[in-house]
Design a protein that fits this description.
Length: 182
């Protein structure tokens, strides 16, 4: 389980619903972000002319969610030479907040999803977090600059996300991201 610190008042925490007082994991957090983004994309109004998209399908037999993500972003180079991508949220009426004092300070759900997927990919590449060098679940994670130049870019990812069906203490069940990292 890769550790995650939720901010106070965060919309998505990474804590298992089966153990509400337990630790948060990066895997559950990112799965929660992607599920929330897909839910909002289906329920809220899109900003005109945006082509951002997330799609998820869960195979309960294999316990794998197949996720495809495309987010429009702007890329800039900081004075330190670091390249940073920033996603503007494209859904009107989103109530997402990353919370205060946590691992993420993303100003919107699209940015949080982009950062979360990138974090997972970096953790997969770290042999201290993935000591058995398990097959990559984050199959693609890339930023592509627009052919027309400028700072327009897209962030895209394809993920085979391990999931588990968790029985809730009061009855019922929920699908959550499964921990696969240390």
């Amino acid at each position: 389980m890769a550790s995650h610190t939720s901010g106070t008042g965060a919309t998505v925490t990474g804590v298992s619903q089966a153990v509400p007082g337990g630790p948060a994991s990066k895997e559950r957090y990112v799965y929660g972000l992607l599920a929330k983004l897909e839910q909002e994309e289906n329920d809220l109004i899109r900003v005109a002319n945006r082509t951002d998209a997330v799609s998820m399908s869960v195979n309960l037999s294999t316990k794998v969610a197949t996720v495809s993500l495309l987010i429009n972003c702007q890329v800039a180079v900081a004075a330190t030479g670091q390249v940073a991508a920033t996603a503007a949220h494209y859904l009107t009426g989103s109530t997402f907040t990353s919370g205060a004092g946590g691992s993420s300070t993303a100003p919107n759900l699209a940015q949080a999803a982009m950062q979360g997927v990138t974090d997972l990919k970096l953790l997969e590449l770290d042999l201290t977090k993935n000591p058995n060098n398990a097959a990559a679940n984050v199959r693609r994670c890339q930023i592509v600059m627009a052919a027309s130049g400028g700072t327009n870019a897209t962030f895209s990812a394809d993920i085979d996300f391990p999931v588990e069906v968790v029985q809730l203490p009061g009855g019922g069940s929920v699908i959550e991201g499964k921990n696969w990292l240390l």
